Amino acid sequence: MDEFTLIRDYFSTPDFVRKDVIIGVGDDAAITQVPQGQYLATTTDTLLEGVHFLRQASADAIAHKAIAVNLSDLAAMGAEPAWINLSLSLPEVDNQWLELFSQKVQELTKYFSIQLIGGDTVKGKLAVTITAQGFVPPESVLTRVGAKPGDWLFVTGTLGDAAAGLDCLQNKLKLTDKSAQEYLVARHSFPTPRVLAGTTLRRLANACIDVSDGLMQDLQHILKGSNVGALLHLDKLPISKELGSSIPELQQALTYACTGGDDYELLFTIAEEHRVSMESAMASYNLPVTCIGQITGVSGKIDLRLNDQPFSFVSLEDRGYQHF
Amino acid sequence: MDEFTLIRDYFSTPDFVRKDVIIGVGDDAAITQVPQGQYLATTTDTLLEGVHFLRQASADAIAHKAIAVNLSDLAAMGAEPAWINLSLSLPEVDNQWLELFSQKVQELTKYFSIQLIGGDTVKGKLAVTITAQGFVPPESVLTRVGAKPGDWLFVTGTLGDAAAGLDCLQNKLKLTDKSAQEYLVARHSFPTPRVLAGTTLRRLANACIDVSDGLMQDLQHILKGSNVGALLHLDKLPISKELGSSIPELQQALTYACTGGDDYELLFTIAEEHRVSMESAMASYNLPVTCIGQITGVSGKIDLRLNDQPFSFVSLEDRGYQHF
């Protein structure tokens, strides 16, 4: 089977078709139309076997994660996703694998009202590169550089679940509560990009990033980008009941929440005047958000507190996912 | 060295900065602005070591080819390139390699007035994925589906050089003329995307594709897409003096020209009424184009002629680059 048949069979008839896609899969390039007056947001992420997903990861989990991490990046800019390009490197043509992978792509593109507009298939070690594109109004772009002293520091959802789930999969963490373990593993394997939260934060948040490499590391990106510091209340960190009840030792739970990667929650800063509007908007969508601290003027410094007392982990600030 | 430092060091200060890039490398996604009234063209291509380039390929040749193949896809749609995203998979951080790679990226982005707006770096087997974006006016999009019986079949530049160059590199072809060999190897390692030819063909060509998998195979894409056939004059195929003088046996030279991949020339069909305007425009830019045949109404059929006599290679029609 050649590349063309492969792509044609699995990806050429999208379940979800957008009117702004003039030419999708099948020509030399896709042709699309960005709405007048909107900016284009573009992001690319590559997932490699053994680095971003385990060797035993299922095809649908890989497809899910590849799409989720890219939509999460768009969400962190306040952008609404529209189109994705897929580059797939496969060691062999495995129809069962491709069927499962493409079913998940179809399911998610439909769910998020986005369209697969093109791609490439090559023979090599299993790797998935997705480029996602979306729109954001010019005055609503969320960046890492707008945080201001006094801003409240918020995060969506819960932290640390994905890292604990990965440890369960790798037998580094053994839980007696099987349903809690299943929950944590699902948070690792099928992360939820906070797409609606991202567009909701337009014009409300001053700075935003997605938590992909761990809270401490991603918070540092905001602090460095915005030339500010932060007060972080460890006792306020949102920890799921599944993680909290499984890990009775506080420091271990906090380590997951502070340094665990792959949660894909949004971390954002917001001025006092917009806090209430943001909280009611999020509540009306049933999107949980938690205030975990406040931005300070002390550039680059994270001031950790536990029950209002200064607290320190041994070199916690330096931890987080390192790509090399 | 972590991913962030790596990207920051080599790719964060582009030599060429475009006004339509609002946010480039460094945030969760790039933010750009498509000109009002223009369509967006997007294409993705992955290059893998051992598949798309030889293990011994230099970093600058890899960078060149990765950019060229993507700009070639945009050119085949009539699109003007604007921005590229780079996803780089590297087995290790090799500063000398990265220096050479990034210098070539800088050189080409400057040459083509495009900007690197984002990317991703992962640890893995050497692989380069580029997503290129550009613009094309709605009424000027070139596709594979518009060829009409009677259209002249044209190709830019010369055919077969890149495949012969690859054979030289792999010692499958040994030439006594070293300067011819150097030329052919350069055509393989540093292909020229026909960017200006692509925009020149807007509103003139009826169908267009880039010759990446070999003339016969890429011509078939036009024929199938447009539901037409073609008369192909083998004696008219543009063969460089370097290829022609090195390969005295006609059938071998024709095999390179008909089935050799990686030339990245544009193959297009044009109505009689636009032929003269196209030829003068191309001549004014010093872009060589050659009429190699004509579109017929016999769907899917390539009618090969040599000096106006029917001619056939053994299953030549089926040959060309197969990705799996």
Automatic annotation (TrEMBL), chains A, B:
Function: Catalyzes the ATP-dependent phosphorylation of thiamine-monophosphate (TMP) to form thiamine-pyrophosphate (TPP), the active form of vitamin B1.
Encoding gene, per UniProt annotation: thiL
Domain spans labelled PurM-like N-terminal: 26-136
Binding site for Mg(2+) 5: 213
Upper classification of the organism: Bacteria, Pseudomonadati, Pseudomonadota, Gammaproteobacteria, Alteromonadales
Reactions it catalyzes: thiamine phosphate + ATP = thiamine diphosphate + ADP
Similarity section: Belongs to the thiamine-monophosphate kinase family.
Keywords: ATP-binding, Kinase, Magnesium, Metal-binding, Nucleotide-binding, Thiamine biosynthesis, Transferase
UniProt superkingdom: Bacteria
Coiled coil: none
A GO molecular-function annotation: thiamine-phosphate kinase activity
Cross-referenced InterPro entries: PurM-like_C_dom (IPR010918), PurM-like_C_sf (IPR036676), PurM-like_N (IPR016188), PurM-like_N_sf (IPR036921), ThiL-like (IPR006283)
Binding site for substrate: 52, 262, 321
Positions that bind ATP: 119-120, 144, 212
Source organism per UniProt: Glaciecola siphonariae
Note: Reaction mechanism of ThiL seems to utilize a direct, inline transfer of the gamma-phosphate of ATP to TMP rather than a phosphorylated enzyme intermediate.
Metabolic or biological pathway: Cofactor biosynthesis; thiamine diphosphate biosynthesis; thiamine diphosphate from thiamine phosphate: step 1/1
Chain positions recorded as Mg(2+) 2 binding sites: 45, 73
Protein name stated in the entry: Thiamine-monophosphate kinase
